[in-house]
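PROTEIN DESIGN WORKSHEET
SECTION A - STRUCTURE
LENGTH: 413
TOKENS:
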């Protein structure tokens, strides 16, 4: 999608500054108010609004949600006459961050392009950014920028003018791919801003490419992340595949696989499953871009079941705390499960094949976890001295049988 912004013509007032709002946030629409007057309305994600002229002496600015007049962010930017600026809004609902970008950077040398990097996906953590030829292996590539942290000051760098393959990985891990764009074109002597933005799952990232005083190119991640939980009782051996992507191959239960990238599609994709070599019928699945999923196989080997769970690997709202949920995969137990952490309720009423909502708990190196079952006089599962790290996300998978339950506490991120 290519959306064009107007940088102003020769009839512009050179005694005033020019300002545009770019919505790179989780808000559906944002308004730009200057001196209490709405100057740009309902700016959607990735949409370019034309620059508006601003009196530099009256530049008190508010950014509001389009459905409210209450300011989400207020600022008094320092603007120079006859200069252009972008007000970049990033972050999720309830945690909007607004940054002023100078759109007056000079041209680089012939054969070079200037690229400004902005990390606006806080939940993704620090990342490495690579620009390579299309067929280059990531294993031998050197990052254009290593350790780019969310919310850090923009990083200004340069690259040769060309069409590059853009890849973003978790910082220090080439195996943890977060974005893979086959072609990104850097204009001759041009300047652009690459903004990394959030996805629904939290780990993967989208991108916006803002040409200085020009167009905005939106580039969404083309994948989802999927992992498999082998939770079949009595050591059932699990294999799982979505379309052509093998997620697990003959792994004995209990086991929790790592996330794998699977190409997303608006059409349903075929799912192939087997337990102990016997095929298990599974309906096709639609995987949303940027989302995280868990495919859990549980039950008895003779009567296994497969359940899809949506994972929310965004960081806790209250930083310094821990996100925790309970997943019910106990074979032969149709009752509900509940979870406490240090005797405080976290989840209740969790049905077979389902996951609870995430609860936020105090981080601890000595947490006591207890899982109860409806109609059970004693706890189904207990674990003491469990480490729950701050700013992390955990799932407690209950698999096996009621007579021999297995609790797997897995740090999801």
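SECTION B - SEQUENCE
RESIDUE ASSIGNMENT:
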């Amino acid at each position: 999608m290519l959306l064009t912004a107007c940088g102003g013509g020769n009839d512009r007032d050179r005694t005033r500054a020019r300002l545009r709002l770019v919505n790179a946030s989780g808000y559906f629409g944002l308004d730009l108010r200057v001196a209490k007057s709405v100057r740009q309305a309902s700016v959607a994600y990735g949409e370019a609004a034309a620059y508006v002229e601003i009196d530099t002496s009256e530049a008190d600015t508010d950014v509001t949600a389009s459905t409210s007049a209450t300011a989400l962010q207020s600022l008094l930017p320092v603007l120079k006459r006859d200069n252009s600026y972008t007000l970049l809004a990033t972050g999720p609902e309830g945690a909007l961050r607004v940054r002023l970008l100078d759109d007056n950077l000079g041209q680089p040398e012939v054969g070079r392009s200037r690229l400004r990097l902005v990390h606006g996906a806080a939940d993704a953590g620090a990342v490495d950014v690579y620009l390579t030829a299309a067929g280059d292996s990531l294993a031998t590539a050197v990052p254009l920028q290593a350790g780019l942290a969310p919310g850090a000051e923009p990083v200004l760098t340069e690259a040769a003018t060309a069409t590059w393959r853009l890849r973003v990985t978790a910082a220090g891990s080439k195996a943890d791919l977060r974005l893979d764009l086959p072609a990104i074109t850097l204009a001759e002597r041009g300047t652009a801003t690459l903004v990394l933005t959030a996805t629904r799952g939290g780990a993967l990232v989208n991108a916006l490419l803002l040409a200085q005083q020009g167009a905005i190119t939106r580039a969404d991640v083309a994948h989802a992340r999927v992992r498999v939980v082998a939770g079949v009782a009595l050591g059932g051996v699990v294999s799982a595949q979505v379309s052509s992507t093998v997620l697990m191959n003959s792994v004995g239960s209990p086991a929790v696989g790592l996330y794998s990238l699977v190409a997303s599609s608006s059409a349903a994709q075929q799912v192939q499953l087997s337990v102990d070599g016997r095929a298990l019928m599974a309906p096709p699945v639609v995987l949303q871009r940027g989302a995280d999923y868990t495919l859990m196989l549980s039950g008895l080997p003779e009567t296994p079941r497969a359940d899809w769970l949506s994972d929310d690997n965004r960081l806790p709202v209250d930083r310094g705390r821990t996100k925790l949920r309970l997943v019910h995969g106990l074979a032969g137990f149709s009752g509900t499960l509940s979870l406490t952490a240090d005797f405080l309720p976290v989840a209740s009423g969790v049905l077979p094949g389902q996951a609870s909502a995430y609860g936020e708990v105090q981080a601890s190196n000595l947490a006591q976890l207890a899982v109860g079952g409806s109609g059970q006089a004693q706890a189904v599962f207990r674990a003491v001295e469990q480490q729950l790290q701050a700013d992390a996300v955990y799932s407690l998978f209950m698999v096996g049988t009621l007579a021999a339950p297995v609790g797997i506490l897995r740090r999801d991120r």
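SECTION C - NOTES
The two ends are 31 Å apart (CA to CA).
The chain has no helices and 35 strands.
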